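Technical appendix A lists one of the benchmark inputs used to test multi-chain prediction within the project. The record comprises two sequence entries:
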Amino acid sequence: MSEPAPNAPAVRDLAATHFRLGWIGVLVFLSLGLVLEALHGFKVGLYLDVDQETRRLMWRLAHAHGTLLSVLHLGFAATVAHLPQLAAPLCALASRCLSGALILMPAGFLLGGVWIHGGDPGLGVLLVPPGGLLLLVGVFAIVRAIGRRA
Amino acid sequence: MLALAAAFGALHALPRGQSLALAGICVVLTSVGATFRRPVVDTVLAESIPTPHHEEGFAGSGSCRACHPFHFESWHQSYHRSMTQVASIDSVLGDFDDVTLRSRGRVTRLWREGDTFWADVVDPLFDLENLQVPLRELPADPPRVRARVVMTTGSHHLQTYWLARGEAQVAGERAEDASGWLLQLPFVWHVEEARWIPTQDSFLTPPSRRVAAGTAWNLSCSPCHSVGTRPGLEDASFDTDTVDLGIACESCHGPAAEHVAANRDPVRRYLQHFDRENGDPTIVDPRRLDKDASVAVCGQCHSFHQDVDLAKARDEGVTFRAGDALADHKFVIGFDSDREHPAVKGVLAAEPDAFDGRYWSDGTIRVAGREYNGLVVSKCFEEGEMTCLTCHSLHEYAEPSDQLKPDALGDQTCIGCHEDVAAAGQAHTHHAADSPGSSCMNCHMPHTTWGLFTAMRSHRIDSPSAATSAATGRPNACNQCHVDRPLGWTAEHLTAWYGQDPVTDMAAEHRDVAASIVWALRGDAAQRAIAAWSLGWEPARRASGSGWQGSYLAMLLSDPYASVRKAAYDALRQMPGFRDGDFTYDFVPGEAEQRGSSGRAMQIWGGTRGTFLDRRGTSVLIDDRGEPMQQRIMDLYRQRDDTPVRIIE
């Protein structure tokens, strides 16, 4: 029987937090997917007209990124649950970064599609690059944490 | 298949891990191979059509799509875009299923080979080279070519086909002397009727036993039906290149390479998005041009003009760019233009009757597609701010046919300036508010131009005038709808309603015979065509009855002009007794062959008039018993104006 790691309670909390975040995210962004399908179903011009191509792209990206990032959160939660000896500071950093990415990236795409300028999205899309950066840092932190585990 | 089976066998022979790795490598290699596989290139086609170029500041329409998806799509759905296309199974509408066509003693054979289209025709260059040779001196068996159809023009009403007459395509001695020519097939495809028509019969042209020489796309069509085309004519050969086939973005917005390069910078783009006051200085927006420059954008093609420097145009192509002053590049030929001007002399040398066909004798343009000539002599333009874009939008149009703005389908655009007229309502129109007689366009833009087998609205915006009609023969809006009324009747109403001077100088028959009948029987070919069209126009049939026109339309079925015959047949098909399709008629064979058709149509009309005849009296030349007043009809018919009329849009 192995010894529990000294930071096991914190890791369990972290895992629980990201399981919750992940499943909420899946719920929210799959719901967004249903909304988008409904826009298709009812042939809503706001979404389907030729001049709405950019909005369509942005909202599809919001749906796709939100769903995949939610799944990533579930993966992160599973990782920390199965590897409790991961370095706590790196896990905390990864947690904050992934949480930021889960908000910023889908929100950026979603807002970018609300006001569009021809082939350019609205300024809301400016949230996406910092979200992408946080995602990269978060994933890097996980990789480092796994590499450093005892 | 054997190789595939062998590969599967080999994979099974390997250990599981290795076989998976090998399969993965195969998938990756196949994907890479597919990605970088050389596309199948139709080299004959590529060498026959104009070479693409992005010089002189042009970027090509493909570079616009990423930033302007809506504008790109609306352009893509327009008939401007498809004005010139590479011939393919997607673009070719005509029947090439081993078709043999005959016209004026010549045979043309059309066929398909896979996805390619071919023609066996008398060498079109032979006709161009022998324009001045009398018909009787031409050889009985002129040289033929077996040529590939490489491009198309048009996709809406008619489709014309262009034959590659490069060295590789031609069997004959002169093959090396002339290359790069894109020459016209002597038949066009009529889209609505799904049939072939001799090209010369698709225009309003005098009857001829001779096959008219076609044109070379490189010179005659490329200036307006493509972007940035440089014909490259040298020593009877063409080395033509082009930016875009079809009328594309840079036709109206000017060369866009600078605009495309500048707007790769996202910061600049977003600053532009939020600066709605000032346009982007790197591109032309015709809506922001002053009215002269704005109408010039359309007028570069929709006008009767000649290049100022013709020799340069033959080599370098169109020098006009959107935003330029039209006069710097093209001499727009008006009715009052100096006939001694070099540009006008050049046109008259090639086409001595150029003015007779294109203009009514009061100087109003009567060839369709030359709307600029009409607009710039209209008060709405001269004294107002009206431009083409007041009514038309190339992107936000109600439907692609006329590309009118949704507001311009009705009277809203006119009312925008003429509020007082709108307020006067029926006091101004003297017609029921919801009737065609209260439509601004019906009265002020009557259908007095001709092209594509139909009458189109004049873009010389003016008021109906019986005096003008009496003096020039130009039909007026009143008599195009009230086709059962004489010009004298119109004059009286215009005097009573609008205070126009009484018309004292009017031919006697215009006092008591419907103007449409006078023009149909005694007019020149353009008047006859437009009169025939008017007799079938739906608002005219509502206002003037629809059962009495048969005898006149039957007579026009044997008119010398094919266009008149077709207009008469189209109108006749609207009449009771002819709508059911039992009466069949082909307008293409000549006047002599049509007499029987006229007789048959007259018989049908005679058989139905007891039921449907809805007008009698001198004005329609039908007596109280319902019989045509033959003497008066033949008197007018014998006075027919046979002045040759040529309207080539």
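The interface with chain A takes residues 65-71, 73-74, 266, 269-270, 273 of chain B (CB under 8 Å). The longest strand of chain B covers residues 144-153. Comparable benchmark entries are summarised in Table A2.
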